[in-house]
Design brief:
The complex is a heterodimer of chains A (162) and B (287).
Chain A: H1 3-25, H2 28-44, H3 54-73, H4 76-91, H5 97-105, H6 110-122, H7 126-133, H8 137-161
Chain B: H1 8-17, H2 22-34, H3 39-47, H4 75-99, H5 111-114, H6 125-128, E1 171-188, E2 194-202, E3 205-210, E4 221-227, E5 232-238, E6 241-244, E7 250-252, E8 269-271, E9 275-286
Antiparallel strand pairs in B: 1-2, 1-4, 1-9, 2-3, 2-8, 4-5, 5-9, 6-7, 6-9
Classes of the chains: A mainly alpha (162), B alpha+beta (287).
Chain lengths: 162, 287
């Protein structure tokens, strides 16, 4: 990949990878740092990364940076936020389905959440997601299945409250 | 399998995932005409399809961009470049070991490196000193990498036959790899005994455990990583990220090897067949 292609990668995928990490991590500044770091790694290796593989290299690198980040911070910063999301969902009546889904998303196990985000936000195939998250194709499918089932159950419970 | 009242959810999810054939879609549609009460569920499943918030953008993309200057990267300069990157990484590893509290975290350079000055990347004496090395190591203090103006490539043997170990295995010059699978690593414990370790996953992190009765041994030095091609032995890896084949655990650098997984008796342990290694530089030998 040439420097010019690297810069095109920035234009094309910086927003997408930032949205994915931000949504998964629920922390703006940390998401920004992780994306910046992923681009630094991509730049460091740009001569060895094919342009057509740059997107998945970028997402994969950012994902692994995020895992590392979460492990280092032991989720301390995030637990509270997620708890609140959980409480909010059951205490208040969520009329806005989109908002309800956003909250339910944060209740999913990380691996399910990341599979669904990559699938819906970026339209990746099961195989591509598997490569990025180090899962096999059928595991990805199962995780997405479970995630959608949980999200749906959540919506059912919301509807019962209304 | 035909759609029925017990499996319709999977069909609905496959439908919104776009996995159904035209015939399957027709079958689902017919099923719903017999079970109109389930149509609402299909609508709810459709709601689980997320849409990105396109108003969220990465501000200041310009800060991520790099100069597009016209430097031509030749094969020759690439080799120099990769060697330089590797040397810098090794300095980094040295600093990291210095910051660490445990001496045994250090990677020990190999005998072939120590016995041949041309092959070694010299490092500043104050960094070398934290690395437990054999007594016979020779460091040219006036010519360490940071102040060295000679091309770095000269530090790599000109031919692979120039350097041989006792067992006559060929030593390849430093190489870069973006992705590899490793099936095991070899390490040395405190008694300098060579152990073959297999990767296991503990609470989403990968550790390496011996098959032998050596579970209480703390790993002192990573020495070999066998890649799955059965041809390559990686002697020394630099700044690698490894991911377990079974779950998304991450091993960063080498520090996690300094760990006894069996002290964590409350952990769920998963055996993993493979570790996948991303982005590292290595010396290797052919078996």
């Amino acid at each position: 990949m040439t420097p010019k292609e690297y810069n095109e990668t920035v234009d094309m995928w910086a927003d997408g990878v930032y949205r994915f990490i931000r949504k998964s991590l629920k922390h703006d500044d940390d998401a920004r740092d992780i994306v910046q770091n992923a681009f630094e790694i991509l730049w460091k290796n740009h001569e060895n990364v094919q342009f057509d593989k740059a997107k998945s290299y970028l997402f994969s690198t950012a994902y692994h940076n995020m895992i590392d980040h979460i492990r280092k911070h032991k989720r301390m910063d995030y637990v509270e936020e997620i708890d609140e999301a959980a409480k909010g969902g059951t205490r208040e009546v969520q009329v806005d389905v989109k908002e309800a889904i956003e909250k339910a998303l944060q209740l999913l196990p990380d691996v399910q959440k990341n599979c669904v985000l990559l699938r819906d936000y970026e339209g990746y195939s099961y195989e591509e997601i598997g490569e990025m998250l180090n899962l096999n194709e059928s595991q990805v499918k199962v995780y997405i299945f479970r995630a959608r089932k949980t999200l749906k159950e959540y919506l059912v419970s919301i509807h019962h409250l209304i | 399998m035909k759609i029925n009242i017990n499996n319709y959810e999977a069909w609905m999810i496959d439908y919104i995932e776009g996995n159904l054939s035209a015939a399957d879609e027709k079958e689902l549609s017919e099923f719903l005409t017999f079970h109109p009460e389930l149509k609402a569920e299909l609508d709810l499943f459709s709601e689980t399809k997320l849409a990105p918030d396109t108003t969220v953008i990465f501000a200041d993309k310009q800060s991520l961009k790099k100069a597009e200057g016209g430097r031509v990267i030749t094969m020759f300069s690439w080799i120099k470049y990769s060697a330089a990157v590797a040397a810098v990484m090794m300095l980094f590893v040295g600093v990291r070991m210095y910051n660490g509290s445990k001496q045994q975290m250090a990677i020990q350079p190999y005998n072939y490196e120590m016995s041949n000055e041309d092959f070694a990347f010299e490092r500043p004496a104050n960094e070398v000193s934290e690395t437990p090395v054999a007594n016979d190591v020779k460091i040219n203090k006036n010519n360490f990498f940071a102040g060295n103006t000679k091309p770095v490539k000269n530090k790599i043997p000109a031919s692979t036959t120039e350097l041989k170990e006792n067992n006559n295995r060929e030593i390849n010059p430093i190489q870069n790899i973006e992705y590899a699978k490793a099936k095991s690593i070899k390490v040395k414990d405190y008694s300098n005994e060579q152990l073959q370790l297999n990767p296991i996953v503990v609470e989403e992190e990968i550790y390496f455990a011996s098959n032998e009765d050596k579970h209480n041994t703390t790993v002192q030095n990573v020495t070999d990583i066998s890649l799955n091609d059965n041809k390559t032995v990686v002697d020394w890896w630099i700044d690698a990220v490894a991911i377990g084949g079974e779950i998304g655990g991450v091993v960063e650098g080498v520090r996690d090897y300094d760990f006894n997984p069996f002290e964590k008796d409350n952990s769920e342990i998963t055996k993993t067949r493979n570790i996948n290694i991303l982005g590292f530089s290595y010396y290797s030998r052919k078996k």
